[in-house]
Queue: 2 jobs
Job 1
Amino acid sequence: MRTALATLSIIVLALHGFIYYEQLSARWQDHQSQYFREAAEQSDNAAVRAALADRKPQIEQVIVRSFGQPRVDRCMTCHIAVDDPRFVKADQPLRTHPAIKGHKFETFGCTICHDGQGRAVDAEHAHTGGHDWPWPLLAPELIEANCVQCHTEPDWPYAPRVAAGRRLFFQRACYTCHTIAGLSYGSVGPELTEVGHKRRASYIREKIENPRASNPTSTMPRQDLQPEEVLALTAFLKSQQASNVARAPLTSFVSAQQQRPEWLPLAQIVGPALATSVEPMPPVERGAALLPQVGCLSCHRLDTRDGRVAPDLDFTAVQRDREWLMVHFNDPKKVVPGSLMPPYPLPDEVFDSLSQYLLSRPLPALPATPAEQYALLCARCHGDKGKGDGLIGPYLDPRPRDLTKGAFMKTKSRERLIASLTDGVPGTSMAPWGKVLGPERTAALIDYVLGTFPKGSAREPKGRKVPAANPVPYAPVSVARGEAIFLDRCWGCHGKKADGHGPNAEDIVPRPRNLRNTPFLRSVTYARLHESIKYGVQGTAMPAAGFDFALSDQQIGDLINFIYSLNGLGAPAPQTAQLLPTAR
Amino acid sequence: MSRDPGLLANLRDLPKNVWRSLFRNPLPSSDLGRSQTSFANFFLHIHPVKTHVHSLRPTYTFGLGVIAFSLFIILAASGILLMFYYVPSVEQAHDRMLDLSGTVAFGVLLRNMHRWAAHGMVAIVLLHMARVFFTGSYKAPREFNWVIGIVLLLLTFFASFTGYLLPWDQLAYWAITVGTAIAAYAPGVGELMRFVLLGDRIVGQEALIRFYVLHVAVLPAIITILVGVHFWRIRKDGGLSRPASADLPEAQPAFPEAVEGKLEGLAARSKLQKKKSFGVLGMVRGPFNKVGNTPDNTVYSWPHLFAAELFCFALTVLVILVVAMVFNAPLEAPADPTHPPNPSKAPWYFLGLQEMVSYSAFWGGVGIPTLFVLGLLLVPYLDRGNKGVGEWFSRHRLLANTLFVLFLLVNLVLIVIGTFFRGPNWSLVTPW
């Protein structure tokens, strides 16, 4: 025991010695000694040399009080030669800082421009700030983001990258989803007013390059950007710090409290020059000039440009009419409830120009064979192999139909499939392609699809009895009965809000139908709803409620009355397909 | 009275006399000296003069109690030094952490030592409790000391928890937000309890100052007092528990007259009650000086017990120093109430609770923990058999030990799940 105790005591003592040595000798002391030595060598004045020889290393600090919360910058403890012009060519940390007119170290310190953790006197803590510090040293190419904190004039010429990022913020449609107080009012994505204050530049950059990198459920479309464009957007977003150090807190507060305008001035989005030059143009040309500038093509495809997120606009001219386009511009969810597209904060004149331009475009030439037509028109959503996983498939809700599921495809009549292709499916991204193809080519394309993709067999539906009209009259009692059945049997997949997001929905492909999709429900006949509920939908997870849950035709009628009540469809139940909700 | 030898001689002997007045006894060479060393020293006299050899077996106690107390001393010393730099204000607290971790000499080391010793103390106190349980040491007459031990365990949790907020970084802020939210699930008093603890509806300046005062003054004072009682009771309860077989077989009374009732009072008791170890007065100064080869299998505390204790202390210091030099205590971005991390996790020792809360707020956060604590407090009053005391995993205590192993395992598994297997939105993730 005594030997062990003695050994242990000696080890602890030795460790103490090491700790004292390690804690009391820091790297910055070496840097300062080196500076004193080299400065003395370069000096020809004996008195200066003597003074330098007498200097002892000490912590140097600047307390910056002019910009918000006091900052303590101790960077000069290592970078002691920043204001000594003789060290221009020296290695860091002893290099001279280039002189910037009017910016004195005593007033500004270092971190106000460079970020980093000013209180630390060892390189690692000072530069990275340690674990999770939001403001590590800014890369030189991003420092502009801090310049514009004080230099807020919009045309300040020394921050070209921030200005380019600002243009991209509008050109790439970021403004339609994200709010930056005083600049944009999107409500789909997170607010970015303070993003530069809260997030590291590396995080912002990663999010722009790949929105799903740190959040696998993000619905933000991945944009096709050049490295320089990513850098510009990063610099612009890093400059969004809300608590502007040069601005009184009151002005920030007032700008944040500003009323959300119905639309943004065009000049703010495309720049004053373009806004003025499009003013006198006729609508079609104005639309042509604006369409690439307001962000449409960061998701949609037109001609050679493709945002790879949203449907092709090349065929819009014949598929849609002006009324549809205007409703869709103002609120895409009115016609496609699951649409990812945010409402655009633009004035109606601009929508009108854009609509007229799109409607005036000539239809591209169609290829001859159905296979080529499928590749051009259908594969963007349904995928090359018909699996419903095309380029933009993941961004659509409901997802494109998986054409390989024999159980679904083979139990539907050819007429119904042709009708879906001809007229489109209201409330979804399926467009009326019949207007592009004409009846013969539509039928040929359906035959091609049916002959190529579906796999596996299906039970033939036989002897189905489906009433053509609801056996139960629409009445509050019936709706209440229907709701009780819904909350008993249906909500697990369709969700308690009937929006198709029930607890089981995550694992089901295709996703359960959103029963609040009014345009879709308006377009579907009563008989088809009744049949789908009573006999189930083959190739999907929809069970045959008429047998599995022993629901009678009357109960199914109640259920459908409840679904109609959610969509304001009430009595009398609509029997004919209607494409549009009433115009606003 | 000796004659004053004169000023010069006094000056000459000054160092020697100061030394002697400090250390009354020279290094002992006789058993009487060894007794007096313990007896006459303020810091040593809470120990018995003699210690049973069974208590000194390293594999019986593993020194866990002494290690826990050593960690408490390290925490007090490093904590007092940290107080010189720390300011409990939401504006300054995090800046002071940056100063400590980047600029102040020894700052980062002290902070690391304090942080790791705090985690270590929670762990060691838990292990100490497990040791006491598995050796059946909570049985009569030691029931109340077990209860004090459980209270000390809870105080250790609370002291560590209150210290968790002080760095005022994201980790601290959200751990306390989660931890106090668990407390609010208590029916009726939960919200009030949370409000009293935080002084506000959210964690803010009021919470910081309250946690600071609790952490640096209130809790250490209570812990110090209860630790004193805990130690004192060990002696009052006859030293550490030991099996009957550890004692020498009963010898014939050396003084038949005591048995026959011819001796009375203290004298009779000191003859008959051989195992009693608190009769120091009687032993050293009393009429019957038992110093010598008494047949009770004990050894003198000086040097056996003290050397062992010093060894545990030095070992603890060494481990904490090395850990503090190798691993930095975490410090995240300054607390930001508008930006919760996902997931927000409580300190590790409360992650079992948080995991249970994710199944049921009331049962996980209040019901089951209350049952746990009540169960622990009542153990010595519910399990009153006297077999298997002083023996690790005695087969007489198979049921009790199995239940306790299960209790520990359940908590351990929950903590491991909460620590490593829970990701954003508290969904299951794999750590590899």
Job 2
Amino acid sequence: MQVVTPLFHVLVFPGFLFLVAFGLFVSWVDRKLIAKFQNRVGPPILQPFADLIKLLAKEDIIPEHADRAMFAVAPLIALAGVVASIIYIPLWAPVALKAFSGDLIVVVYLLTLPAFALFLGGWYSANPFATIGATRVLSQLFGYEVPFFLACLGPAIAAGSWSISEITRAQDNGLWLISAAPLSFAVAMIALIGKLERVPFDIPHAKTEIVTGPEVEYTGRRLAVWKLAFLSETIVGAALIAALFLGGPHMWGLPYQAMPAWLTAIVGMVVLAVKILLIVFFLSLAQAAMARIRIEQMVQWCLLWLGIPALINMGVIAFVIRQVGA
Amino acid sequence: MLDGLVKWARGKSPWVCHLNCGSCNGCDIEIVAALMPRFDLERFGVLLEGSPRHADVFLATGPMTRQIRDRVVRVYEQAADPKFVVAVGTCGVSGSPFYPGYNVLGGVDAAIPVDMYVPGCPARPDAISYGVLRLLATLDPKAEALVKEIEERYDTEGLVYTPEEMAQQRDPVEGARG
Amino acid sequence: MTASAVLYHPVVVFTLCMMAGWGVYALGRALAPASRVIGGKLKTYACGENVEGESFPTAYHLYHAAFIFTLLDVVALVLGTVTGTAIVWMVAAYLLVGLIAIVILFKD
């Protein structure tokens, strides 16, 4: 039992299988929302699932000049980095499956793995489009990574802990940390768009310009794993922001004291799912409303208008904590 | 059971790649029109992909010119199996007015195998989507029922030709003999 | 060290997820048709042009951004390891250094 439960958590719920299934659903919500914004009907609910099965059932091609091992392993690294980080994020209770001091830093760096994997996969495809896309992935990383990290530090300083579970538990009294770190929240949301490489920051993929950038040589199951990695990253990134700023599974006005433990878990899960869907709504809205910008515009704008507000918000929180604590 | 699932998925998720073999851009604009909100092919799972490595269906337009032949063959070969080609527009079907030209080899099928022909100058967006649907009907039985329903409700005569029908059109005697 | 402490360790979780991803590959291998190499199927895709795969040189013109990234990542990590009991002027000094660096690099 001691071995089975953790394995179940990592591979089935809330790990791999659940994340893939929920990710497919959320990607349908995303596509349907964009279709609605554009006054279209949009795809049926099983569309992402059909896409996944179809991609799995396609022939596998590794280009002759690509590095075979790197080409095959890069998508797996991206997927594993994303799925592994869900274990340390609180989902149904204010405490994650595993919490330790500093797991916030582990999760933030696990979530940068897809970008590095994308760079490696693109670079070792030995394709002109993929090479350009790979350099753009790294350039874009310079733009959003520091603001995202600084934005995550805001609630961490306010809660006085480096564990995501501790930060979420600090919001259990109903005082969500978005009230202490509104600028950090805005920065984290915009940096998340860059992290997920969505419009207007889809510069590394740029379908109309460099085909799909680093993924251009990928077919079949390897492309399917890339897609899974990105849609899981959407969920995990949204869940992280919800846990840090929006109280994770907490919702005002619910009689938590009167509920049995199992009901609390289900309600918490539903509340978090709603928060994730709200964040995805914001992402879809941005995608439908905006166009792609250039890479150096993105990096400069992000460092200036995301980095500085995040720093300011962090400084204010640190100062206030210092004054109150003294 | 897995086999049925795969067939269903292939019929539900055709990702198209647009292949211009020397077209005048008329049919290309009609293809784009078919993907736009008015016709909204995404409700059938159609997505426009740039890379042939991601695509299942090529929408090939224009007469096959001598210049582009090698490149079209290379792009077609680089796509992963199973892959299909829809020749869009009268030029794609036969080379049309350009056919006897020194630089034109004929229709799209002069270079790569074609699975469905959509004539028209330019081909209409609804004809293009009907052609893709007819192609999917060969994969997925459910799409076949949809094709039957459409044929009952609308006049689809001459909108789309399968390779067999096209062979018969070109040479009634040889085509009938098989 | 209990079994759950080992199995929830980030490295172990990561390895397990890698194996799960490899399971997706195995499923794909079972579903996909066998690969048939015909003509130039394995050639590098370049819009149909016949290119030989090689490492394509790229010009990198965002050195200042990379520099800021390194700087700020260090600043952020230093701030991250500061606890609530740290001296406040140290925190302020690091924030100031970060701000000055951004201003210098973007002043033109």
